[in-house]
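# step 3/5: fold
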Amino acid sequence: MTERAPQLTLDWPHATSWAREDFLVAPENADALRALEAWPRWPSRVQLLVGAKGSGKSHLGAIWAEIARARVVDAARLGDVEPPALVSGPALLIEDADRIGPAEAALFHRLNAVHESGGYALLTARGAPDLWGLKTPDLLSRLRLAPILALGDPGADLTKAVLFKLFSDRQLVVDAAVVGYIALRIERSLDAAHSVVAALDREALARGKPVTRAMAAQLLRDTAEL
């Protein structure tokens, strides 16, 4: 039998949905979600959302930004944004605050503005403020007072649920045993789940076959060898 030639595949973009209904609630993130959805009944005007890369910070931040109609800005760009643009509304989402770098002064001024205007700010980061390498003592002192909403690394159940959803988003029907096999062997992060599903989608299209355990195993072996 002649082996079927690989099909030409087009890497169509798959937009990530940050909608509340697409957020998968699990023990690792339930407390943080509950706290964010309690806005504006917060214990402090500034809160920190802390978790490893791929733990769901961006999705949770987007959910809160929608609820609070918050202005969203990357921490490293704070110095490029005019102050009035950041205090014109009741809330501000500052992403990747641990990568603030030379914009420390801008962050300090923005947090002061939030307090003075009676607004709210949510900062996402990969770790607590003491790990950010801050050089401004007053800024560090203020951030140490902010409550921390901690996200745990995705466990096996959440990883499987995310994989099922990502496959479904791409109209791929994958056996539960295959999903379980993948979940136990990839890095426990949502980024890793996105990457492996995208790669398997491309491979399945190229072969003209459904995603199988053998296909997943080969992909994981090839990835480990890189």
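# step 4/5: annotate
The first helix runs from residue 30 to 37.
# step 5/5: archive (pending)
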